[in-house]
Amino acid sequence: MVDRITFDGPVILGAGLAGLSAALAAKTALVLSPTPLATGCSSAWAQGGLAAALAGDDTPSLHAADTIAAGAGLCDGEAVALLTREGPAAVRALAAIGAPFDRKPDGDFVLSLEAAHSKARVARVGGDGAGAAIMAAVIATVRATPSITVRENARARGLLQDETGRVVGVLAEIGGDLVEVRAKAVVLATGGVGGLYAVTTTPTQVRGEGLGLAALAGAEIADPEFVQFHPTAIDIGRDPAPLATEALRGEGSILRNTDGRAFMADYHPARELAPRDVVARAIHAERAAGRGAFLDATTAVGGHFPHEFPAVFEACQSAGVDPRREMIPVVPAVHYHMGGVATDLDGRASLPGLYAAGECASTGVQGANRLASNSLLEAAVFGARAGRAAALEGEAGGEAVSLATLPDLPDEAFQALRKAMSRDAGVIRDAAGLARLQGEIVALEAAHGPCPPLVAARLIVDAALARQESRGGHYRSDFPEQAVPARTFVTLDPVQAGLRHAAE
Ligand code: SIN
């Protein structure tokens, strides 16, 4: 017997910045968080900040132009215009609820430069502590809002749909019990896919759950092959790998190999501030050639490290590296998923009653390569828009046609998947590796059923195999040139058909 809750508002899956922004905008919401608040979500780990045209010499259209240039031909211009136009107000709204952005003596925001931005426009907190501080302010506001109910240690085991396909709620595991949660709408805010890879900067619990749930329900998925690798995760054998923020390169830190040679000039005229995918491939190439890769902040940051970049300093110290005097060993790591559940500008997915926001959504703003510090901004702006729209949905009338829970992926299989994804769907891909990986995922699905992380992995791999070009975060060594720009839109059935073909 499954208990039933009927909630008069949207149910929101996930409690990062997108999920909680949606809850605050909806005013009345039920938030299901798989972990205690402020843990297990990438937002709280963000070191960068929010990019927005806050400086006197900056404008939303300059910010939009940089976003579109980084997006390598696949950004949706309307979504980018909206994001960059609403950016300054979103930062000020977070400041108004207590996010303690770094300020100058005159009260203006301190703004940092990050790669591929033409202006210093990243509003930060305590150097590298933006995510944790912003989330603390948002969580305090949510906790002080009686009409928002938060259930921690609650996770989705399947979406509920009526016979027309409308999403009418979620089958959730709350405190160990299965509960049918009926709601006006479901907002997916489950984060990205970092945990699907062996080397990631995101919490390992973030493993494409929302993407898999939505795809299994028949929602349209966009651009799943576009995974962003942060060039400089700290290579000290930790899982997840701690991040060495891009702002360190913005401050003038240099990438060197084991011999101390600064190598970025060999790869791009903008050197350390080249687009993120270029820097990631350069580091990958140096490591693959046995030359190693290190970030040298000894001159650019030096003695200021402990107070300017306390989180990075602490991570280095934990492994016996003193970044004031020594180079930091770095490795590219999965950091962000540009693809996701396809949505309109109000977070609406292709299925009635279903919304998505933040990293698990694909609004089209991130294109083939996200511009640094546009993700917290997207979470705040589009999370709020999704929450407002979801709150206006009418009652979900129909009964759910099935109450089946989706299977869990056993840990051993999950670890095998992570290794295989890093090996074959990483910084550099080719047809042989992707086809081998596809076969391994098919075998895991045959053994364990349609677990959402496996479905998410399959979407990434199928689309990466189908995209016979290199663009943004997707680099094919067998197709190094760009083809005509076109986004990917898929639903699960054709993908399954593709897999059957591959398995024959
Ligand atoms: C960083 O601080 O390097 C990460 C910023 C981002 O990924 O947006």
Provide an overview of this structure.
The chain has 504 residues and is an alpha/beta fold. Among the domains are: 3-191 and 338-391, FAD/NAD(P)-binding domain (3-Layer(bba) Sandwich), CATH 3.50.50; 230-332, Succinate dehydrogenase/fumarate reductase flavoprotein, catalytic domain (Flavocytochrome C3, Chain A, domain 1, Alpha-Beta Complex), CATH 3.90.700. Helix content is 34%, strand content 18%. The protein contains 14 helices and 18 strands. The chain has helices at 17-26, 60-70, 77-96, 130-143, 209-217, 247-250, 276-288, 305-308, 310-318, 375-391, 411-424, 431-448, 452-466, 492-503; strands spanning 3-13, 29-33, 50-51, 111-112, 122-123, 148-152, 154-161, 167-174, 177-188, 221-222, 227-234, 254-256, 294-296, 328-337, 340-342, 354-356, 361-362, 489-490. The strands form four sheets. Strands 1, 2, 6, 7, 8, 9 and 16 form a seven-stranded mixed beta sheet that branches. A four-stranded mixed beta sheet has the order 17-15-10-18. Helix 1 (17-26) links the parallel strand 1 (3-13) and strand 2 (29-33). Helix 11 runs antiparallel to helix 12 (431-448). The two termini are 41 Å apart. Residues 497-504 have low confidence and may be disordered. The chain binds succinic acid (SIN).
